[in-house]
Amino acid sequence: MRLLKYITKRILVMLLTLFVLVTILFFLFRVVPGDPVSMFIDSGLDRESQELLLKHYGLDKPIGQQYIIYIKNLLKGDFGNSFQYGKSALEVIAERFCNTMILMVTSLIIAFFIGITAGAALAWKRNTKFDMIGTIIALIVRCAPIFWTGMILLSIFAFKLKILPLGGMNTPGMRFDNLLEKYLNFDFLKHLILPAVTAALYSAATPLLVMRTSMLEVIKEDYIELARAKGLKEKRIMRKHAMRTALLPVVTIFAVQAGFAIGGSVLIETVFRWPGMGREIVLAVSFRDYPLAQTAFLLIGVMTALFNLIADILYAYLDPRVALD
Amino acid sequence: MKLLELNNVSIDYKTIEGNIRAVDKICLSIEDGEILGLVGESGCGKTTLIKSIIGLLPQNGTVAEGEIFFENENLLKLTKDEMRKKRWKDISMITQSAMNSLNPVYKISWQIVEAIQAHKEISKEDAYKRAEELFELVGLEKGRLNDYPHQYSGGMKQRAIIAMALALNPKIIIADEPTTALDVIVQSQILERINKLLENYQGSMILVTHDMSVIAQTCTKVAVMYGGKIVEYGEVNQVFKEPNHPYTMGLKNAFPSLVGEKNDLISIPGIPPNLLNEIKGCRFKDRCPFSIEKCSQENPKKTNIEEGFFYCHREEEREKLRVLASKQETWLQENIKE
C-alpha cells in the first residue's frame, strides 16, 4: 500500500515535470534567433503566397495562442506536422527514435552490468594490484573520447578481424515486413554489438567507480562484521549483504546516466552510421522545424523521466527506508 | 571441563608507525557454564582479544604467538572454512554496536533465519518458528519479526541481536559491550534480560565491558585488563571485595557501589600507555601511586591466589595498599611520578 502511494506520487511528479518541459521547449525554440520563414519558405515566392504558407502552419497567430493550440493538440496525441517533410512529426521521428532507444538501452544494460560487478569485485579485493589496475583501466576508458574508442573498435573488429559489420543497422538490401522482424534477427544483433559496446564502455566507468566507493564504505559497516560472525560464506556476504546495500547510490546515478546516454547518442550514431534520431535532431534545429524538434526533444524528455521513475521505484524496492516518507 | 583456553596469546597490529602489540602473552581459561567478565579502559585490548577468539581480527591484525583452544582444538590451526562453520553455531557474538549490526535492507526475520540456515539443514518455516521462540525469549513481540531494522528502537535492536546470538544454542556467547550504546534505563532492562536468559542457558559467556557494575551484576569470574595484559583475575565477589592489583583498586573507586556506604568517586589520573613503544616493567607503573624502583625494571611475577591470580611487585603489602587506595589523596596527580 505504502509502495503504491509512493509510486502514484512519483508518477504525478513526472507528469508535472513533462508539462514544464513541453512549455520550456515550446518557447525556447521561438526565442532562438532566426525564424522558420527564412529557412523553408522560398524567398522567391510572392508576399501573398508566403503569408498563405504562414497561415497554413498557424505561424501568423500570436505566440500565446500558438502555445494553447499546441498544448490542445498534444493532449489529443497530435504532435504537429514537420515543416521540412510535410508529414506528421511523430511519424518522421518514431522509427529513428526506436533505433536510438534500442541502442542506448542495450548499452546501458551492458554498462551497468559491467560497472556493478567489476566495481564490487575491485572493492572486495581492495588495495591489491587487481584493484589498482582495474581502476586505472576504468579511468582511461572513461577519459577516452567516445568516437575515438568507436574507431579503435571498428578498426580491430571490422577492418582487421572482419567479424563484425562496419556500420549501419542492417545489411543493405534486406527487406522487412514489420518492425519486430527488423529487430529480431541475427543480422541486426551483429550490427548492434560494436556501437552498443562502445557506448557501454564509455558509460560503464561511472557506475563502476560509484559502486567501488560505495562497496568500500559498506564493507566497513558493522553488519558486514556480524554477517562474518554468523559464519556465512564469503560469497554470500559479498552478494547478499555488501553488494545489495552498495547498489543504492548506483541506482541514483542510473537515471542521470540514462539522460546523458540518450543525449550523447549523436556521436555514436555518426561513427557507426546508426539510423538514429541524433542527426534528425540537428537538422530539425538548424531548419527551425519547430514541430519536429519539439517532438524529438519531448520524446527524449519522456524517456529520461521514465528512467527516473524506474530508478525511484527500484530505489524504494531496494531500500525499505525510502518508501516511508 | 575447560571450554576455552587461551595460552600465551599475543596479537599484533601492523600500522604505518610500526607494530602495535595490542594483546601481550595472555593466559586465560573459561569453564563450561562460566560467565566471565572482561573489564578495562578503552583501548586496553578487550575487543581485540575476543575478536581473535571468533577469528574476526581486522586485516592488519594477527595472532603473533600462542594458542586458542576450544574444546581441546586449536582454533588458530583450523582452515578458514572450518572456522566459519564454528562461528555462531559454537561461538556466537553480540556485537559492540548492535545499532548498526543489522543490515538495513532486510527484515529482521530474514536475518535471523539466514543465521540459522547457514548452519542447519532446516526449512524456512521451521527456522522462522525458531525465530518466534527467540523473540519471546528476549521479550519482543512476534509480530515485529517482519519489520525492518529502522522500525526498531535501539533497545529492540539490541534484543533482536541477543535473540540471534541464542539462535543455535552456542556453547559460548561473546558479548562485546552489549549495553554501551543504550541509555541507562534500556541498559538496565537489557542487562536484566541477559541475567534472566543466563539462568536457563547452559553455555558460557564472555561479557566485555568497561562498566564494573555490569560485571558485578552478571558475572561469576572477572578478568581485569590493562595495556594489553590481564593484571588480575579471580572470582567476582573476591576481586571486588579485596582487589589485589592497584589498577583494580583504582577501578573500584571509580564506580559507585550499590551496597555499602556512599563514597565519593575517585578517578585514576593519567592515560593508558602507548603500546607502540616497548614497555619495560609493569605497564601500570606510570599511573600507579604505589610504584617503586623495581616496577620500572622488571616485569611483575604472577601471584596465584585461590581461584585467581594477579601481577604486582608489591604483592606482600597488598593489605596495606588496599587501605591507602580507598583514600582520595592517594590518587592525586602529584602523588604519581612523572
TrEMBL record, chain A:
Q: How does this protein sit in the membrane? A: Multi-pass membrane protein
The answer on whether this UniProt entry bears the keyword Cytoplasm reads no
Q: Would you say which domain of life the source belongs to?
A: Bacteria
Q: What is this protein called?
A: Peptide/nickel transport system permease protein
One Pfam family here: BPD_transp_1
Q: Report the subcellular localization.
A: Cell membrane
Please tell me where this protein is predominantly located: membrane
Which InterPro entries does this chain map to? BPD_transp_1_N, MetI-like, MetI-like_sf
The protein's UniProt keywords, in alphabetical order, are: Cell membrane, Membrane, Transmembrane, Transmembrane helix, Transport
- The UniProt record lists the ABC transmembrane type-1 domain at 97-311
What family, per the record? Belongs to the binding-protein-dependent transport system permease family.
Automatic annotation (TrEMBL), chain B:
Question: Which SMART domains does the entry link to?
Answer: AAA
**GO molecular function terms noted in the UniProt entry:** ATP binding
Enumerate the InterPro entries for this protein: AAA+_ATPase, ABC_Ni/Peptide_Import, ABC_transporter-like_ATP-bd, ABC_transporter-like_CS, Oligopep_ABC_C, P-loop_NTPase
- Sorted alphabetically, which CDD domains does this protein's record hold? ABC_NikE_OppD_transporters
Task: Name the UniProt key words of this record, in alphabetical order.
Answer: ATP-binding, Cell membrane, Membrane, Nucleotide-binding, Transport
**Which residue windows are transmembrane per the record?**
none
Q: Which residues form the ABC transporter domain?
A: 4-252
Q: Where in the cell is it found?
A: Cell membrane
Instruction: Please give the superkingdom of this protein's source.
Output: Bacteria
A Pfam short name: oligo_HPY
Where is it chiefly localized?
Answer: membrane
Protein's membrane topology: Peripheral membrane protein
Family, as annotated: Belongs to the ABC transporter superfamily.
Protein name in UniProt? Peptide/nickel transport system ATP-binding protein
- Look up and give the organism this protein is from: Sedimentibacter acidaminivorans
What does UniProt list as this organism's lineage?
A: Bacteria, Bacillati, Bacillota, Tissierellia, Sedimentibacter
